[in-house]
Specification:
The chain is an alpha+beta fold. The protein folds into 3 domains: 82 residues, Uridine Diphospho-n-acetylenolpyruvylglucosamine Reductase, domain 2 (2-Layer Sandwich), CATH 3.30.43; 104 residues, 2-Layer Sandwich (Uridine Diphospho-n-acetylenolpyruvylglucosamine Reductase, domain 3), CATH 3.30.465.10; 219 residues, Vanillyl-alcohol Oxidase, Chain A, domain 3. It contains 15 helices and 18 strands. The protein is globular, with a radius of gyration of 22 Å. 30% of the residues lie in helices and 26% in strands. The relative contact order is 0.13. A hairpin with a 4-residue loop joins β7 and β8. The structure holds flavin-adenine dinucleotide.
């Protein structure tokens, strides 16, 4: 039997990795819920090599899966028997163009490096994810949500141009005005139609400092009322929130002692400022109905962008980082947010989080215009993410609970954020993409005619 990898070895030389340890590393992701061992890992040095690998895959009939930093959790960047296209060799970060408010970066660049380069020029990308260790191509392929998303949409709304290698092996430059169909198929397209090899990112001027107000709410409706008001008035540039349990012991549910909690809702509202004209704290928080103002913190913009790094360090030291992460994230219509969250929290044993947390992300429904970033059509929306870190054996209990929470969210008009833990059959994928199902099928057929890019991920 001829070895399908022989010609790829000639093509890539040392950039084709086949050692057992590398294959093991590439067999899992941050979710740690799947093991899918690839055939080999290709680490192309440039766009021409990506195109050559895609053309080889078409000829050899070997599937490809694109991998950024593998921080998604449900096998989005894994495929057994595939060649992994690892973009880590394409991580160049260009010099920011201060006049044009843009910068060019490689598809495999880490956002941490992009932000550091932009801040040196007094600029910053308008939307940053909480974790800057992820790649530009990885977040553009999902959406890239951040605490400025209520104003600026997702990272996919703030990419000005992309160079993409399609599943046909063609190198295409696309933007809102050029090859629009490909531009829209690749943003939030889960790597199904093309490989992002380069992106031009929009930048905005950054002020030197950020002040954060730590407000605590003791009921969800007050938090939602104030969030809606703050989004409308744009008093703050950044809003993030959580559901935090205060465990109350056990109560009987159907005769079984079951742990339960009283829930609280911190809201962190932040704004950039220049030390020469500090913000008016009283005016900023006037009329809000929080239960307590807990703290006010000033940070440099660089510290603010990396504000969750100390948490991630704690997670690494405490074992949470290495645990299984069946993260269940949804975007809910504002109208059903309160009833959904109340129903979920009433039945969520606090210990299920295993040291993780529950995120709340108030946003507006129409800020993002990325067609494949699926969200409810309501004026306001709420991101809600249960982010547990568990020993794998806990999945027997947690899995069905989280799957039920996912189904209930979709029944109540929500959409899943697909980088998390998905156990989707065809009906659920169709429900997720809704009216975008047929356009996505058409784009897949056009840009990846032989279906070499992650076949089977979405049953298109
Ligand atoms: C601690 C933590 C915090 C997070 N916080 C946020 C947050 O605040 N906001 C948010 O939106 N997400 C967040 N995420 C989720 C994370 O941003 C997404 O999972 C993102 O997709 C991960 O990027 P990655 O480089 O690891 O991509 P991967 O996991 O490697 O890939 C994700 C998908 O993108 C595809 N892909 C990757 N690179 C390319 C490319 N160059 N071209 C085409 N397709 C490609 C892959 O095939 C796959 O389908 C967080 C994750 C973690 C672990």
């Amino acid at each position: 039997m001829p070895d399908p990898l022989a010609s790829l070895r000639t093509l890539l030389g040392p950039r084709l990795l086949e050692e057992a340890a590398v294959l093991e590393e590439n067999a899992s992701d941050f979710g740690r819920l799947h093991r899918m061992r690839p055939l080999a890992v290709a680490r192309p040095a440039d766009t021409a090599e990506v195109a050559a690998v895609v053309k080889w895959a078409r000829g050899a009939k070997v599937p490809l899966v694109t991998r950024g930093k593998a921080h998604s959790q449900s096998g989005l960047s894994l495929l057994a028997g595939a060649v992994v296209l690892d973009l880590s060799g394409m991580a160049a970060v260009g010099a920011p163009d201060a006049a044009g408010l843009r910068m060019e970066v490689g598809g495999g660049a880490a956002w941490r490096d992009v932000v550091a380069a932009a801040l040196r020029a007094g600029l910053v990308p308008p939307v940053l994810t909480n974790n800057l260790g992820v790649s530009v191509g990885g977040t553009l392929s999902v959406a890239g949500l951040g605490i400025a998303s209520f104003r600026e949409g997702c990272q996919g709304d703030n990419v000005l141009e992309m160079e993409v290698v399609t599943g046909a092996g063609e190198v295409v430059t696309c933007s809102p005005d050029r090859e629009r169909e490909l531009f829209d198929a690749v943003r939030s397209g889960l790597g199904l139609c093309g490989v992002i090899t380069r992106a031009t990112i929009r930048l905005v001027p950054a002020k030197p400092m950020v002040r954060t107000f730590y407000l605590l709410y003791d009921d969800l409706s007050s938090l939602m009322k104030d969030s809606q008001r703050l989004m409308t008035e744009e008093r703050f540039g950044y809003l993030e929130s959580w559901c935090v349990p205060c465990p109350q012991g056990f109560r009987k549910v159907a005769g079984v002692p079951t742990p339960f909690a009283q829930w609280f809702y911190p809201l962190h509202a932040s704004l950039e400022f220049d030390p020469a004209s500090p913000p008016d704290d009283r005016a900023l928080t006037a009329g809000l109905s929080h239960y307590r103002s807990v703290h006010v913190e000033d940070r440099t913009m660089a510290e603010f962008a990396l504000r969750l790094e100390p948490l991630f360090e704690l997670w690494k030291r405490g074992g949470y980082w290495a645990a299984a992460h069946p993260w269940m994230e949804v975007v809910m219509p504002w109208e059903s947010t309160a009833s959904y969250i109340t129903a979920i929290l009433a039945n969520l044993p606090p210990h299920l989080l295993g040291g993780g947390h529950i995120l709340l992300w108030p946003s507006k429904g129409s800020t993002s215009k990325v067609p494949l970033f699926m969200k409810p059509k309501s004026e306001f929306v709420m991101g809600f993410g249960i982010l547990p870190g568990l020993p794998p054996q806990a999945m027997a209990v947690a899995g069905p609970m989280l799957a039920k929470a996912s189904d209930l969210a979709m029944k109540m008009g929500g959409k899943r954020y697909p980088s998390g833990w998905l156990e989707f059959d065809e009906a659920r994928w169709r429900a997720q993409f809704g009216e975008m199902w047929e356009p996505l099928r058409a784009a897949k057929a056009r840009f990846d005619p032989d279906g070499v890019l992650h076949p089977g991920l979405v049953p298109l």
